[in-house]
Design a protein that fits this description.
With 147 residues, the protein is α/β, with parallel strands linked by helices. The chain contains 8 helices and 5 strands. The longest helix has 14 residues. The protein is globular.
């Protein structure tokens, strides 16, 4: 899976648009190595993505499922589900199955003017990751200053 993720990221770095499509249930490593490694991630209604399910998260964090459910209400990065993933900026758009998926993708890909990764900015706009864009910009500025 690491090789697949590296191939997707390398293709993106070479100017090839990479697209992931979420549908049905997806979780854990397969989700991370495929969906989140693409430049553009879209979903169909009814998709059920999760980076880690709450029982597994509970085992890792040693927090009860009830505590995690409470955190998930106010912090999308803790919460499974399409709406939460979209709020973090990871999912660009949910596609309408009644309209041509090819046309919708063409429109989305055509609107990607800067070609850059904008998930952090989407997360800020959608209030799912309010600090990620500012932190990334600051790190980028510091890296440029150190040259």
């Amino acid at each position: 899976m690491a090789h697949l993720a590296k191939c997707l990221i390398y293709a993106d770095m070479q100017g090839r648009q990479t697209v992931g499509l979420l549908y049905g249930h997806s979780a854990a490593g397969a989700f991370l190595a495929t969906a989140l490694a693409t430049r553009v991630l879209v979903a169909l209604l009814g998709a059920e993505p999760e980076v880690m399910d709450l029982p597994s998260m509970s085992k890792v964090t040693k927090l009860s499922i009830d505590v995690l459910k409470e955190k998930a209400k106010s912090t999308p990065v803790f919460a499974p589900g399409l709406d939460n993933l979209a709020q973090t900026g990871a999912v660009l758009s949910t596609l309408d199955e009644k309209t041509s998926l090819a046309e919708q993708l063409q429109t989305l890909l055509g609107s990607d003017q800067d070609g850059g990764d904008r998930r952090d900015r989407l997360g800020k706009t959608r209030r799912g990751r309010p600090k990620a864009a500012d932190i990334a910009e600051r790190v980028h500025d510091l890296a440029l200053q150190s040259k």
